[in-house]
Amino acid sequence: MSKRRREEPPNRAEQAAERASRIEKSGSFAESYLSYLLARASHTVASGFHAKLKTWKLTVPEYRVLFCLAGADGLGVGDLAAMAIMAQPRMTKVLDRMERQGLVGRHPDDSDRRRVLIHLTALGRSRAAPVLRAAKVHEARLLAPSAPRNGP
User: Which residue has the higher pLDDT, 6 or 138?
Assistant: First the structure.
């Protein structure tokens, strides 16, 4: 009995382009609705990178927290939730998990004792660094075809 050769996994970008082409030809309201088109573009751009997050053992919400806090001197939970496009109750659960992992710390806000600021720990910064570098490489690859070219 011959072994079946394993096929290469489908290219996500090609699949997304094929799907987008079918949508454009569908006559659907969605094909010309800006909000939908922006959401679709965001999904297409992000999904390729989000699939790589498993490499760093991160979920998409954890990744969002890392990139929102990178370079920030601490953000309130509500501000962080808004920036990460996440409901505040879900953000709290993600932060609880990340705090247990030692990636973030909660510190009282000196100017408002009712408020807590979220900071990346040293471990969080070290875990974030390679992921954020990879995110910038991914972004550069996506933008390369539209970058201005020098010369003829």
Answer: 138
- Is the pLDDT at 9 greater than 60, yes or no? no
With a CB cutoff of 8 Å and minimum separation 6, the contacts of 146 are: none
Tally of domains within the chain: 2
What span, in angstroms and rounded, lies between the C-alpha atoms of 88 and 81? Answer: 5
Q: Is residue 80 part of a domain?
A: yes
CA dihedral sign, ordered 112, 114, 115, 121: positive
As a whole number of angstroms, the distance between CA 102 and CA 108 comes to 17
Please give the Cα distance from 26 to 47 (Å, whole number).
23
Structure confidence by residue, pLDDT tens digits, 49-58: 888 999 999 9
Phi, psi for 147 (deg, rounded to 5): -70, 140
46 and 62 belong to one structural domain: no
